[in-house]
Specification:
266 residues; mainly alpha; Ybab, Chain: A; 2 domains; three-stranded antiparallel sheet; flat; disordered N terminus
Length: 266
């Protein structure tokens, strides 16, 4: 009787220990996986210098960004009064969002992978929205619990969020540009060439990409070499690259140290 009690008493802590260890292992694995997803963004440093009319105070909210980009279509843009010269750019945003999602559906390593969906080329989705139906869950129809869950899963995907954030930034710039163009058209309806030049100002003047393996790529827009403030823009870009590289390397060292400490504890 005594021996049995001792055996039962000793078995309970052992079981709890195994359960605790299992939970810790799962947490560590999940943490390392999250770090792995984050490291994808740190494999290269990209610095862009853009000259704009003004800086927008737009804040990124995933749900709002997804809701605002999802309904974009030729009919929607016309209804919203978007200037004709900018509509193709808006449609490209919507197309990019669709392609990003279809890429996740086709990726066997993605948590959103759907084995019933297979497309060899995601670029097959075009601006012809009527002939090519969307696969994205509709954020404008929230009556279905399945739709809400699907959107929550989608917005919880790190890869999709990275793409959505970039698209949201581009849309914010387009929205500002649209307001400028509409104002110019109302004030000077005959100045078509000037309006076209205004449309093209939100372009990347200088771009530097630094890879982890040491490769450095510099790109410059041709118009920069004829810009009256060329030297100022280039100097600003150089200073931005130096500051960004310093911060990038600091973040890399921090993450690597964090991974080492986590692996050591495990």
């Amino acid at each position: 009787m005594t021996n049995r009690n001792r055996q039962e008493h000793s078995d309970v802590p052992a079981s709890k220990t195994r359960g605790n260890n299992s939970g810790v292992d799962r947490n560590i694995n999940h943490f390392l996986q999250s770090l792995g997803d984050t490291l994808i963004d740190f494999t290269a440093l990209e610095v862009n210098t853009i000259v704009v009319d003004h800086i927008s105070g737009h804040k990124f909210i995933a749900w709002e960004a997804y809701r605002d980009i999802y309904p974009i279509s030729p009919g929607y843009l016309e209804q919203q009064g978007i200037h004709e010269s900018l509509r193709d750019r808006y449609l490209e945003l919507r197309t990019s969002l669709e392609r990003e999602y279809r890429g996740l559906l086709n990726d066997p390593t993605s948590e959103l992978h759907d084995p019933t969906v297979y497309e060899q080329d995601n670029s097959s989705f075009t601006h012809d929205f009527e002939r090519t139906p969307t696969r994205l869950p509709n954020p404008l129809d929230l009556k279905s619990p399945e739709t809400i869950v699907a959107i929550q899963r989608l917005l919880g995907n790190c890869r999709f969020l990275r793409g959505l954030r970039k698209l949201a930034e581009l849309k914010a710039a387009l929205d500002d540009r649209n307001q400028t163009v509409l104002r110019l058209v109302s004030q000077q309806p005959d100045q078509v060439e000037m309006i076209q030049r205004m449309i093209a100002t939100d372009t990347i003047c200088a771009q530097t990409v630094i890879q982890l393996d040491g490769d450095v790529i510099n790109r410059y827009d041709q118009s920069l070499f004829h810009h009256p403030q060329k030297e100022v823009i280039l100097q600003i870009h150089r200073e931005g690259v130096i500051a960004s590289e310093r911060q990038w390397r600091g973040l890399l060292e921090f993450i690597i140290g964090l991974i080492k400490a986590t692996l050591h504890k495990s």
